[in-house]
Amino acid sequence: MKELIEKVNWERNNGIVPVIVQDTKGEVLTLAYMNKEALMKTLETGYAHYYSRSQKRIRMKGEVSGNVQKVKEIRIDCDNDALLLIVEQVGVACHTGNYSCFYRKLGEPEKAVGGIDYSLTILRELEELIKQRKENPKEDSYTSRLFKEGKEKIYKKFGEEAIEVLVAEGRERIIYETADLLYHLLVLLAYNEISLGKVMEELRRRRK
């Protein structure tokens, strides 16, 4: 594992290398990026982990959708600055709902398909922000204040928000109160050092 990681020329692209992802039948699925930690997690778990340049964090492919990529083989190019992953794709690879991200051919009309709702990724982003506020408190942060006041306050607020959902009248009010509930649930989980991923694992276990 260490030998493969050190073989990659990380310095050429500021610690990040492009990764071509292909399924076991030879179809190219997507183009992603990795840093050392993402490659390490991929090798350790057997599931593809990538570095998100926009969110500046490592994520496992399919962590929200369940469309994971089981890695069968990893290859490196002749210049040691690009990787090829051969994977067993669970579900689809593209957020549009297409199997591959390369589903469009230039010069031909685009075919519309039913997309996948990836709005749940906001929960992961919110979870990360809550974690940051816990580890690095900010004076004007409501989240940091909740952690400072401790378990009793955190649990009380979650209970209050649950009641607000139950008594809410009308579609818009229910949506609003549910958003508050989800936020306070993430705070409660972070207080107990439980990641949202663990809850997703339990739901996935029950689905099987």
TrEMBL record:
Domain Phosphoribosyl-AMP cyclohydrolase: 31-103
EC number: 3.5.4.19, 3.6.1.31
Pfam families registered for this protein in UniProt: PRA-CH (PF01502), PRA-PH (PF01503)
SUPFAM superfamilies reported for this sequence: all-alpha NTP pyrophosphatases, HisI-like
Location(s), subcellular: Cytoplasm
Single Gene Ontology MF annotation: phosphoribosyl-ATP diphosphatase activity
Record region (Phosphoribosyl-ATP pyrophosphohydrolase): 123-208
Family matches, as InterPro entries: His_synth_HisIE, HisE, PRA-CH, PRib-ATP_PPHydrolase-like, PRib_AMP_CycHydrolase_dom, PRib_AMP_CycHydrolase_sf
Catalysed reaction equations from the record: 1-(5-phospho-beta-D-ribosyl)-ATP + H2O = 1-(5-phospho-beta-D-ribosyl)-5'-AMP + diphosphate + H(+); 1-(5-phospho-beta-D-ribosyl)-5'-AMP + H2O = 1-(5-phospho-beta-D-ribosyl)-5-[(5-phospho-beta-D-ribosylamino)methylideneamino]imidazole-4-carboxamide
GO biological process, one term: L-histidine biosynthetic process
Region described as Phosphoribosyl-AMP cyclohydrolase: 1-122
Record's keyword annotation contains Glycosyltransferase: no
A GO cellular component entry from the record: cytoplasm
Top-rank taxon, per record: Archaea
CDD domains: NTP-PPase_HisIE_like
Keywords: Amino-acid biosynthesis, ATP-binding, Cytoplasm, Histidine biosynthesis, Hydrolase, Multifunctional enzyme, Nucleotide-binding
Pathway info: Amino-acid biosynthesis; L-histidine biosynthesis; L-histidine from 5-phospho-alpha-D-ribose 1-diphosphate: step 3/9; Amino-acid biosynthesis; L-histidine biosynthesis; L-histidine from 5-phospho-alpha-D-ribose 1-diphosphate: step 2/9
Chief localization: cytoplasm
Family: In the C-terminal section; belongs to the PRA-PH family.
Record PANTHER family: HISTIDINE BIOSYNTHESIS BIFUNCTIONAL PROTEIN, HISTIDINE BIOSYNTHESIS BIFUNCTIONAL PROTEIN HIS7
Protein name listed in UniProt: Histidine biosynthesis bifunctional protein HisIE
Source organism: Thermococcus barophilus (strain DSM 11836 / MP)
Lineage: Archaea, Methanobacteriati, Methanobacteriota, Thermococci, Thermococcales
